[in-house]
Amino acid sequence: MRRIARFLDPYILLLVATVLVAVLLPASGGVAHGFIWATKGAVGLLFFLYGARLSTREAVDGLRHWRLHLAVVACTFVVFPLLGLASRGLVPYVLTPQLQDGLLFLCLVPSTIQSSIAFTALARGNVPAAICAGTYSSLLGMLATPLLAAWLIGGRAALSADGLLGIAAQLLAPFLAGQLLRRRLAGFLARHKRALGYVDRSSVLLVVYTAFSQGMTEGVWSAVSPARLPALLGVEAALLTAMLGLTWFGARRLGFERADRLTICFAGSKKSLAAGLPMASVLFGAEASVAVLPLMLFHQMQLLVCAYLARRWAREPSAPEAVPELAPEPEPGRDTAPGPSAVRG
């Protein structure tokens, strides 16, 4: 048990516990409605903090490392979607059409920001590049994900001008507001870095609880037979394994050094639940709970696997010291010296 506990980050345990609470005690009625609005506010707060903590210098310096960012974007919005399209061959033998739509949507969602940076720092990778890679992916995903969903999923993912405006209002507007207020908030953010870390992590926990709770109240599990759920988990495990292998060995083949390979691996293999949930609610409407189920399960899986890999790579004798950060506070809730508590969803 002690050996297992070493690989389980306390925050990941909190995430798993949050899922269990949502399954056993899901919010319903007016309480659920309150949680939905609270989640929208939490997601907006996350993207506001992302904007407030990304300096202009970081963004400009990140553009100079264009090969790395191009690799992450290609993995996120090209390779992932191609694998999602290939999963159509699993219908109806392994996946139902609804689950396959959800799996394809998962493949279209942008990369994470906070956990990509936390794992990259823990494994002693290129942290500044991870900051920019996650941010660029999220910003591009605000437009690319809805358009790709409308194109590849079709009528089941309804896209409208109002939908795009809704996504922009919840994700892009807070980010831009954070950028505009960054200079005024820089001192406050630096002084209250640790407290804001709890705000950041609590926001992700709220997103996870609301997503799984809403799924329970809407009977999302009843739409998945006992035989389909293990099959879905197996497909997602294969998907994650393929992307981790492709990003790591592909980056080595392209000549990236170790610190950059870690960034590409962690930023190019993961998907953002915080960004995917509001997009799913806009695109799928009443069917959002079923469509987002693969993403919710993949989110937990990627954290567990990447936490293990980050610790393993950090212990390698050849692992260099972490690349110093370009700004005092690039990521919500992440300390200068990342520890287990830095890992987030």
Q: What labels describe this entry?
A:
345 residues, mainly alpha
Write the layout of secondary structure elements.
Layout lengths: L1 H6 L2 H15 L4 H25 L2 H9 L1 H21 L10 H12 L5 H9 L4 H26 L8 H20 L1 H10 L1 H25 L10 H26 L4 H11 L4 H12 L3 H4 L1 H22 L31
Helix pairs in contact: 2-11, 3-9, 3-11, 4-8, 5-6, 5-8, 5-12, 5-13, 6-16, 7-8, 7-13, 7-16, 8-9, 8-13, 9-14, 12-13, 12-16
Range of helix content = over 70%
Structural class: mainly alpha
> What is the CA–CA distance across the termini?
24 Å
- According to DSSP, the number of beta strands is 0
Low-confidence stretches: 321-345
Supply the number of helical segments.
Answer: 16
What average pLDDT do the residues reach? 82
Give me the strand/helix succession: HHHHHHHHHHHHHHHH
How would you characterize the largest beta sheet?
none
State the shape. globular
Alpha-carbon Rg, integer: 19 Å
* Portion in strands: under 5%
Describe this structure in words.
The chain is mainly α and 345 residues long. It has 16 helices and no strands. It is globular, with a radius of gyration of 19 Å.
Summary of the model, kept short:
With 345 residues, this protein is an all-alpha fold. Helix content is 73%, strand content 0%.
